[in-house]
Sequence to fold (362 residues):
Amino acid sequence: MGRTIPLEEEEKEEVEGTAAAADADRDELTMMMRDFLAATGGCAVVDGGLATELEAHGADLNDPLWSAKCLLTSPHLIRQVHLDYLHSGANIILTASYQATIQGFLSKGFSPHESENLLRKSVLIALEARDLFHQKHHPHHHPVFVAASIGSYGAYLADGSEYSGDYGQSVTLDTLKDFHRRRVQVLAQAGPDILAFETTPNKLEAQAYAEILEEGDVKIPAWFSFNSKDGVNVVSGDSLLDCAAIADACSKVVAVGINCTPPRFIHGLILSLKKVTKKPILIYPNSGERYDPDKKEWVASTGVTDDDFVSYVTVWRQAGAALIGGCCRTTPNTIRAITRSLNKQSFVLICREYHQLSSENK
Ligand SMILES: [Zn+2]
Fold:
């Protein structure tokens, strides 16, 4: 039969159909996050620093691949750190893929196939840790999401530029999309619950993530998390409000937040985020120490103790944070203290035996 609908109208219907499908996707992903948060009692606990803990277990991370190096050399240590965080009360564990990129593995001599397998492995290790944990703690009592960590282009460069957001003029939106696209697909297909875009230092990269998610056939939700060194803007100097607005507009994004930022800035940043988004707010600050990109080490500046850190938790929760954890230099002790201050006392008691045993084994 010939066309009965004029082309323009057909195109319009197609556009409307696509928009309706995007709305349905958005609703489904939003509900998924809402159900998860409800199951955690309203506020989910995110895990803490991975690199610090791997080093504490004896891993040598002196390599541009950083914590991703352990995917090769000591996956059992990664699994152990995931378990330590789960037993400290974490509802969300982040995979060891922050600095794991296809390009990084290729430059180390791995084939494209091997490189993609290493990315998948980061997710599989976290899924395995969750399975082990849920053999003891029923998922109904302690739900756990596996979040596939995606560091910025600067994290791949390993020159500290994720703390400046300055990639130079030659890096365009397309450069960033081309850099991240395949990695996002591989990680999403490996079976995590959510994609965690972390330590996002500038607006251009947030835009690249949003476009990859909207263009691609990614079926799982994502969060966008930014870092700030002045408590107002993201580290590049781009407006946090502009960055958060990109996250808010992306149908796949179900939480927007701040990570790897000193605790003292977090309260103000939560209030800023609330001006541009109604999506759940996520925060996982660092310990307050400062990263020196030249020396490639953390220097104590206005560092806070676990007790100081945790004294903020109630304030952050009251200000509207719905996912709270720690970033660099925080430990299972920090996460246990967060769990406790969110009134998840019973969980901490249940896991006390685990921690006694694991500290005896050290
Ligand atoms: Zn960090």
